[in-house]
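Chapter summary example.
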Amino acid sequence: MVIAERNTTIGASRAEHDLSTVDGHRLRSHGGVSEQPVPFVVSTKLTPDYAAIAGSRRLRNFDIFDFVLNGTA
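The structure predicted for these 73 residues follows.
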């Protein structure tokens, strides 16, 4: 997963992205992963501690890394 900072576009190089065909048109992002609600799906049973955390607060997209690496049984 790659997430860019605000006002940054990710691409191999400027030369590989010909924007001349959209000249004069306003471009916008559809929002990054960090800006959207995303499903939180883990295919392995959570430990009791992590299951309690999941039941006690709203999980955010960045929580998935901690849960998968540290919270599966």
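To summarize the output: The radius of gyration is 18 Å.
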